[in-house]
Amino acid sequence: MKQQDRQILAVAGAAALLMAITMGSRSAFGLFVSPLNTATGLGVITISFAGAVNQLLWGAAQPVVGALADRHGAARVIAVGGLVLALGTALIPFAHSGATLVLAFSLIAIAGAATGSNGLLLGVVSRQASAQRRGLAIGVVGAGGSAGQLVLTPGTQEAISAAGWVAAMFGLAALALLAVPLALAFRPATRAAAIDSTCPADSRALRTALASRAFWCLAGGFFVCGFHVAFLISHMPGVIALCGMPAGMAGQWLAIVGLCNMVGSIAAGAAIRRGSMRRLLILLYLLRALGVGLFIVLPKTEGLMLAFAAWMGLTYMATLPPTAGLVGKLFGLQRMATLLGVVMLVHQLGAFLGVWLGGIALALQGGYDWVWYADVALALLAAAIHLPLREREGANGPAPAPLFVSPGSAVRPQLS
Hints:
The protein is mainly α and 416 residues long. The protein has 18 helices and 2 strands.
């Protein structure tokens, strides 16, 4: 194995583990809603709002974190983020008011973005991987988040049942400390990232991307992804309870989603090496709409729940490799951590609405029906807004003017 291949393997492996820690911990949030409400009496709307703020700040911090990593290197950002993430997680059991709960979740969000956010990790991995291996490397990193969900959600459910929710929360805090040694794998990229970020052309590429309709189409699709994913993570345990099924199924449901997402993420990463990333995104959003639509109309049985988990899992974060791949292909790699941070900010705006509106729907109507309908409509919209995009064939480096095609018009460069 070549030295370069060994280096990207080490970086991708460390990134996958960091994704497993952060995304696995985040996916366990829904398991704490009921015990946290029982212990504090804050109410599901207040707790859902705290979770929604967490989603929003997770996204808001990512462009800043990505810019810091582009300029100063990822290793320092990840190490400091891991320490603060452990502290914020350990503070949650001591939050007995809505304000302190929101503060604790805000700290977790910002630190989590610095520790293992998609924009930060995929930006580093994309810059170091060759064009031939980039898609698969992105898929492996995305699968790391699924692996964390697969392991941590049932593990957290068992810890809550055996030792209580406070002990389980402290366990997640201790796990966050592993980010400090994992950050060492990113040290070789520090100097290169600092040098690249000072290039004048780099700033022009950033401005070009942010002024492009193509970029905001990609970000808009990821807004829908955020709404969908955050709603499922936070409220599917409540959906399962409303259907009269045992609480243990919630952890099982999330674990199946994580397992299938590993398959979907890696498959999507491999697929974009040979096929159209735009067409893959359209297909994935259409499959989501179909899956949710079937779930709405079919009788709710345990078999349906497990089948729904598998269906959603295959498309869950499979949108990440083609979205990240298109950002790199259309706008270049030098500022990819920053650009992906902006995309993730939009993603988390959707996540904010998914978590908060889910809590409001449950409190006001005793169910989630209208949120499910909104999810189907948004998935169809996400598929539609990718239709005008056109990919640059064979472009793997910086692209000065990404292409965007309005329906019925000729291909033209999108000006900065």
